[in-house]
Automatic annotation (TrEMBL):
MF-aspect GO terms: alpha-1,2-mannosyltransferase activity
Cross-referenced InterPro entries: Glyco_trans_15, Nucleotide-diphossugar_trans
Segments of this protein annotated with the region Disordered: 42-67
Keyword Transferase in record: yes
Signal peptide: 1-31
Taxonomy of the source species: Eukaryota, Fungi, Dikarya, Ascomycota, Pezizomycotina
Record has Plastid as a keyword: no
Protein name in the entry: Glycosyltransferase family 15 protein
A Pfam cross-reference name: Glyco_transf_15
GO cellular component, one term: Golgi apparatus
Length: 391
């Protein structure tokens, strides 16, 4: 039977479309993360709690108004804008449900402008714990005097061409600088040791039944993360050279048990290391951080941050707090003091940490992203596990 030309053309198009659909379906399943990144994804193993000692609820030992509570010196911390109230309430709801409604740690909200009454009213209604509302001191937020405005303007044009996201947004540069080296100097935080950084519109999926801050203290941990990613190398092209310059004059600052290999082994992204001039671009994704601010306040990090700040890369490039914190931890801290919170189910669009545990809901074990399939290439966890382990 002969078909007319238009019919044959139509059938051809349909066949091609069908083939593309089948190929797409096969390449965009979440199980691809296992094939691409791990022989066996550790998030597929049954996940329990970290080792004892763990401090738990006993009677009213964590009640919000108990003046002799077992809480350690810590706060949940969020730099946030008034306009992000709805998204922040989403994050609060999840963290309160899975953890903080049991332990009642205070929330500290910080903003570059005063919080509105609506912001205060609605956040107060979302927790039984104390809340502090703070404004960033002007001297911590303004563009530093040594930044050359012409060079900054030229750099914006150059890096925008290289598609560095947010390059043209000054507040983004200010935020990255503040999160790198200034937040722990806020007068409201100077007497606080541990912090859990929370951003608007993140999700927490798993019930956590122990005091996470006490875990950090009792196990002598400096930093906890959930997700480990490659960065955009164009945004940090000068960061590693500036770091090498710093190390050359401060060799004694390197920790003998550092994670230099994690910072410099290219893993599966040789082009990143090349474009970032020696840095793999692997970093802890810092929208989630549980950390000991005494590390940032120490002499070593203070000198390192000041060196970077003077180099100007928070503005002439787009150095993020994530690579800056990660390089500092990787070089100047004992890698044993960095903890993967594998049991904390977490999402900041578009990436997840999804443990395999009956304590988790709404998070498919092992899921790394719900975005495009190519996003699996951003996963740097295999490097961390290879060079440091899963402790
Ligand atoms: N108060 C205030 N907070 C800010 C400002 N810029 C960013 N933030 C906060 O800093 C954190 C990081 O900013 P985001 O815009 O989420 O940056 P990001 O996570 O790299 O980008 P996204 O992928 O778009 O979420 C969030 O908690 C924001 O609410 C600002 O100008 N003022
Ligand atoms: Mg964000």
């Amino acid at each position: 039977m002969a078909f007319s030309k238009p019919f044959r053309f139509g059938a051809g198009i349909l066949t091609i479309a069908l083939c593309l659909f089948v190929i797409h379906s096969f390449t965009s399943t979440s199980s691809d993360s296992t094939i691409l990144n791990f022989e066996k994804d550790p998030n597929l193993e049954l996940t329990g709690e970290p080792p004892e000692p763990l401090r738990r609820i006993k009677g009213d030992n964590y009640a919000p108004d108990n003046p002799k509570s077992d809480r350690v010196n810590a706060t949940i911390l969020s730099l946030v804008r008034n306009e992000e109230l709805v998204q922040l309430l989403q994050s609060m709801r999840d963290l309160e449900r899975t953890w903080n409604s049991k332990f009642n740690y205070p929330w500290t909200f910080i903003n570059d402008v005063p919080f509105t009454e609506e912001f205060k009213k609605k956040t107060r209604a979302a927790t039984k714990a104390e809340i502090r509302y703070e404004v960033v001191p002007e001297e911590h937020w303004g563009v530093p005097s040594w930044i050359n405005r012409d060079l900054y303007a030229e750099s914006i044009e150059v890096l925008k061409e290289q598609e560095v996201q947010y390059m043209g947004k000054t507040s983004y540069h200010q935020m990255c600088r503040w999160n790198s080296g200034l937040f722990y100097k806020h007068p409201a935080l100077v007497n606080t040791r541990y912090y859990w950084r929370v951003e608007p519109n993140v999700h927490f999926f798993c019930d956590i039944d122990y005091d996470v801050f006490a875990y950090m203290q009792d196990h002598n941990k400096t930093y906890g993360f959930t997700i480990n990613l490659y960065d955009s190398p164009q945004s940090v092209a000068g960061l590693w050279p500036a770091t090498e310059e710093f190390i050359a004059s401060h060799k004694d600052y390197l920790h003998p048990n550092n994670a230099m290999k994690w910072l410099t082994d290219p893993g599966k992204r040789a082009e990143n290391k090349q474009l970032a001039n020696g840095y793999s671009t692997c970093h802890f994704w810092s929208n989630f951080e549980i950390g000991d601010m005494d590390f940032w306040r120490g002499r070593v990090y203070e000198d390192y941050f000041n060196h970077l700040d003077r180099a100007g890369g928070f503005f002439y490039e787009r150095w993020g707090d994530a690579p800056v914190h990660s390089i500092a931890l990787g070089l100047f801290e004992d890698k044993k003091k960095i903890h993967w919170f594998r049991d904390i189910g977490y999402q900041h669009i578009p990436f997840f940490n999804c443990p395999n545990s009956p304590k988790c809901k709404g998070c498919e074990a092992g899921k790394f992203t719900d975005g495009e399939n190519w996003l699996h290439r951003e996963d740097c966890r295999p490097n961390w596990f290879k060079f440091v382990g899963m402790g």
